[in-house]
Amino acid sequence: MPEVAHAADRRDAAWWIDRAVQILVLAGGLSAIVFIAGIFVFITREGAGFVFDRFDFREFFGSPRWTPTSSHNPTYGALALIAGTASVTGLAMVVSVPFSLGAAIYIGEFATGRVRETLKVLVELLAAIPSVVWGFIGLSIMNPLIIQVFDVPVGLNVLNSGVILGLMAAPIMTTIAEDALKAVPDTYREAAEAMGATRWQVTLKVVLPAARNGLVAATLLGVGRGFGETMAVLMASGHSINLPTSPFDSVRALTATIAAELGETAAGSDHYGALFVLGIFLFLVTFAINFAADVFVRGGQRKHRRRGRRPAASANP
Amino acid sequence: MFEATAQNRSNRKVEGLFRLLFLWMTCMLILPVALILGVLVYRGGPAISWEFLFTQPLDNMTAGGILPALVGTVWLVVVALIASVPVGVAAALYLSEYAPDNRLTRAINLAIINLAGVPSIVHALFGLGAFVIFFRFGTSILAASLTLAVMTLPVVIVATRESLQTVPLAFREACWNMGATRWQTIRKIVLPNAISGILTGVILEVSRTSGETAPIMFTGAAAFIPFLPQGVLDQTMAMSLHLFVISTQVPDVPEHMPFGVALVLISMVLAMNGLSIAFRVYLRGRKKW
């Protein structure tokens, strides 16, 4: 926005209203910061008691024994939960990153006109399916399917929740990756095409390298989504504490543990505090992931602004 | 004159192959979901009837309908909208119309990205710590809706900001030149031209809000409440939580019931999203500049 020329000292009612509105909308903008800070403050406030009284760094990150309800010796080792979350997210990314990037390339570089618009709308609709519905799909459709196909006793495992999570994260990654491809100035493509390159050569040698930062950001945001997903993982992963050794092991995720146990704890107890500490851990990790993704997006934009036209879109949520 | 060389032909073949590969990858994202939706319709369709939608659940939720869950979801969504739309539109107005390119603006943008990226269960913990305990709203529609409002705030902000930015700068400049203040310009020129875009964002938020489960689990939604909520301080049932409860917590639920609930929920969400998309396409076609 360029500066408006200030009308020569005209402090009438309209001027004062304008001032008031300016302060109001500034408050609206600041509210986002207030809320994100509030989230940190309030979960830390509830978890603080546990951190000071009971928290043991080595136990939390080193022990797979999460037995908060044990009457004589409750332990709070989050290693198995972290491993559960990591294995499910890892499998989800293995499944969905190639397909999301492939779909983004098809939609962004190959498809044209109506096909492209239709595919974009479909991808957007996929992103809208609620996570509890995905969890239900894992529970009632994928579970029997996995039991039948792989001849295993239980179908609620890393494989099930990984595939579900992959399908959930894919639309977001596709959208952001496609934005990153779109942000590459057309002059780059035209220059390569003028040299006689085919569409694929242009994509591989020119567009993908130029969009690399944005594609990394898309993948990071996909990881963040998988990491923080709650209901789908709770319902499809089997929810049993395990250090997984195969995709057919049931696991338990950080998020799912909070969702499943918080309702049964007394406010202020060690168990309650421990669940908030898991929340603080989740908050910090996703904050770091989102921050890193933002840095990558910015890096990409700055590069194109220097060398080409302004990008058409950024990878904001 | 332009004779295709062997090199050209092989290049074109490679291009065709990759084109097919990427098309296949795109289809692999969409088709499984289409198949799954087909299964939901096939197995949940028979459960749906007027009775299912508009009667109380019976026999420990193993029979009867889903009325309290439907009504509860409407309550949650409406209260969340009332809380978040004004704040979200104000934030978007600031970012689009006022914000200089400085550190504060960057911090606000980062905060918005993070609000959208923080796991839903962390939002639930926040809602519990802040609204239920600290502000003493108890587990109530108010606490749950405020949690949802904070969580979906980025949806409103981003959609509104985008729609404000499609209004050409020249419109504003013309208005400023007539001596109008910034706010007069926004109210008379910017908002009327952007209002429909803002509306698509609001519809999108309705869709997001109605499907969320984790944020309302500990803040205001309950597994079973045999009557409809009377005010914002009551607890309520909700569609999303109801699906979770009858598919994992309640024994002996006949199979068609959770499928029916899932089908109703997903129809609501997809219908809202479809409406928002259709509205957007319609607006784009009608745009005068």
Low-confidence stretches of chain B: none
CATH topology of the largest domain in chain A: MetI-like fold
Q: Average pLDDT of chain B, to the nearest integer?
A: 89
The general outline of chain B is: globular
- In this structure, how is the largest beta sheet of chain A organized? 2 strands, antiparallel
Largest sheet of chain B, in brief, is: 2 strands, antiparallel
Strand content of chain A: under 5%
Q: Helical proportion of chain A? A: over 70%
Verbal overview:
The complex is a heterodimer of chains A (317) and B (289). Chain A is an all-alpha fold and 317 residues long. Chain A folds into two domains: 13-53; 80-261 and 285-307, MetI-like fold. Chain A is 73% helix and 1% strand. Chain A is built from twelve helices and two strands. In chain A, α11 packs across α12. By secondary structure, chain B is mainly α. Chain B has eleven helices and two strands; from the N terminus they run ααββααααααααα. Chain B has a two-stranded antiparallel ribbon. In chain B, β1 (57-58) and β2 form a beta hairpin. Chain B is globular and about 75 Å long. The model of chain B has no long low-confidence stretch (mean pLDDT 89). Chains A and B meet through α1, α3, α4, α5 and α6 of A and α1, α3, α4, α5 and α6 of B.
Give a short synopsis of this structure.
With 317 residues, chain A is mostly helical. In chain A, 73% of the residues lie in helices and 1% in strands.
Explain the layout of strands and helices.
The complex is a heterodimer of chains A (317) and B (289).
Chain A (H helix, E strand, L loop, with lengths): L12 H41 L3 H6 L3 E2 L7 E2 L2 H32 L2 H16 L2 H20 L7 H25 L3 H9 L4 H12 L1 H17 L2 H6 L17 H8 L8 H38 L10
Antiparallel strand pairs in A: 1-2
Helix pairs in contact in A: 1-12, 3-6, 3-9, 4-6, 5-6, 6-9, 7-8, 9-12, 11-12
Chain B lengths: L5 H39 L5 H5 L2 E2 L4 E2 L2 H32 L4 H15 L2 H15 L6 H25 L3 H9 L4 H30 L2 H4 L21 H11 L6 H31 L3
Antiparallel strand pairs in B: 1-2
Helix pairs in contact in B: 1-11, 3-6, 3-8, 3-10, 4-6, 5-6, 6-8, 7-8, 8-11, 10-11
